[in-house]
Specification:
The protein is an alpha/beta fold. It folds into two domains: 52 residues, no CATH class; 247 residues, Aminopeptidase (3-Layer(aba) Sandwich), CATH 3.40.630.40. It contains ten helices and nine strands. A seven-stranded mixed sheet has the order 1-8-7-9-4-2-3, sandwiched between helices. Strands 5-6 form a two-stranded antiparallel sheet. Helix 6 packs across helix 10. The chain is globular and about 75 Å long. The N and C termini lie far apart (43 Å).
């Protein structure tokens, strides 16, 4: 590119006119170390430093490399089997579908959970440590967040198909959820938007905010960059994030980009142009804070959704 640019500036006018150092290119190619980024050296030597390779596309309030998202590890079988849900959740056994005031016929949004076991400490009886925030009970894990989002979007006239499928294996989680997504889209051609709901492992001080006297579980977006739809998904996440910050300043922790070295790198987002991975709160957030965040997100999401529908139709 540099050689071509030296001969024809018109076609490569946005490329830097400075020729790269051959020695630097050779060194970086042979060692996979970037001279301008010490993380590429230290990340191999210091345990845990490699997580800082996550790119911050949009930084929310207070977001920096010291408080980046932390993905949960494989769920412990002992906690999955032995933990009971909180007593207040046991009283809420009403059927899911009866909660929605409206059920649109056309379902355009697909909600699912690649890490369905991810839960919250206040929703599990006796749970104290972060690695205990796992549950197969959908009243206590991220499926409950999906239930609430389904209800809120339905009531705004946006049809939702919500998969409550429990994913059993951590190592093949995204492959298993991918099969379900593809099956759903094959059987329903109206599905346009994919939302994979997770929760972060950071503590309450990072994952909670107060806006006008109301506590919220902060949310953020993860965008995988190892696929052809990366740019479209990134722009869509940025658009919704911007709307959220306009309505609820400080609610979002931002938009983050991950490659294969920081995670899955694709997250099934190659399947659609509008595929979102959203993390609602962290291990210490409670049901009220999560519910408040879902309501806030659904308001912003529906604004973007209906604006797009108006333009398209």
């Amino acid at each position: 590119m540099s050689i071509l640019n030296s001969e024809n500036h018109y076609f490569y006018k946005e490329l830097s006119t400075e020729s790269p150092s051959f020695l630097q290119l050779a060194f970086e190619s042979l060692t996979n170390l970037q001279l301008h980024d010490t993380r590429t050296l230290l990340g191999r030597e210091l345990p845990g430093l490699s997580i800082y390779n996550t790119e911050i596309a949009v930084a929310g309030k207070g977001t920096n490399i010291t408080n980046l998202p932390i993905e949960s590890g494989p769920p412990s079988e002992i906690y999955l089997k032995e933990r009971e849900i909180a007593d207040n959740l046991k009283q809420n056994d009403s059927p899911r579908k009866e909660k929605s005031l409206v059920t649109p016929k056309e379902k355009t949004v697909y909600i699912y959970h690649s890490h369905s076991w991810e839960s919250y400490l206040p929703l599990i009886k006796g749970a104290k440590k972060a690695d205990e925030a796992v549950s197969t009970d959908q009243r206590a894990n991220v499926i409950a967040v999906g239930d609430k989002l389904e209800e809120e979007l339905n009531n705004k006239g946006i049809g939702v198909e919500h998969s409550t499928e429990k994913i059993a294996d951590y190592n093949t989680a995204y492959s298993l959820s991918r099969e379900k997504v593809q099956e759903a889209m094959a059987s329903n051609k109206d599905l346009k938007i994919l939302i994979d709901i997770h929760r972060d492992s950071q503590p309450r001080r990072i994952t909670t905010t107060t806006i006008k006297g109301t506590d919220y579980a902060r949310l953020f977006f993860i965008v995988g960059k190892e696929h052809k739809n990366f740019e479209k998904n990134l722009e869509y996440a940025k658009e919704i994030n911007k709307k959220i910050e306009e309505k609820y300043p400080g609610l979002s922790r931002g938009v983050f980009i991950k490659g294969k070295s920081e995670g899955n790198g694709i997250y099934n987002q190659d399947i659609a142009d509008r595929a979102l991975l959203i993390e609602f709160g962290g291990v210490e957030n409670n049901l009220t804070e999560l519910s408040n965040s879902v309501k806030a997100f659904s308001e912003s999401f529906s604004d973007i959704y209906w604006k797009a529908e108006e333009v398209n139709g």
